[in-house]
Amino acid sequence: MDTIDTAADRWGTPQQRTVTWHDPLTAAEAGRTMTGRAYLAAIKDGDIPPPPIAALMGFDLVAIGDGEAWFAMTPDASVYNPLGMVHGGMVATLLDSALGCAVHTTLPAGTAHASIEIKVSYLRPISQATGRITAHGWVTKPGRRVAFAEGDVRDPDGKVLATASSSIAIMAGE
Known about the structure:
Layout: H1 7-11, H2 24-31, H3 36-44, H4 52-57, E1 59-65, E2 68-73, H5 88-104, E3 111-122, E4 133-141, E5 146-154, E6 160-172
Antiparallel strand pairs: 1-2, 2-4, 3-6, 4-5, 5-6
């Protein structure tokens, strides 16, 4: 008797992940009337829903300070690359969020920011076994048109897994 070769036979049971989010434009509209720090505090405290990227990537804003922001996530296989470790783009997204939000904590109401560039250095591989990782971003030079920030990603023991630096455009009244 011939056997039928199926994907399930070769690759195991497929996994599934459901992503749910709220309208980001409603949250953004609320944010236009608040300082950057107040807006991020409202997201962190659950008074304003987080942006869809946080739900998609599975990370949370866990703390903010003056010119600082921390995000955390526990990676799973859904963010793996073909080599069986967390995709570098996931780490870059986490760092881009931490650095951008660090700058956002310094902005007055009605002011937005956007990344101009980001440089990420990957120092150690990350996998499910790494456990909860934390990205910390901090402003190194605020500015009226461009701000600069740096950050890192650490494992639960404090080992640095990746670092980043970024230039971030400041857009008043946008």
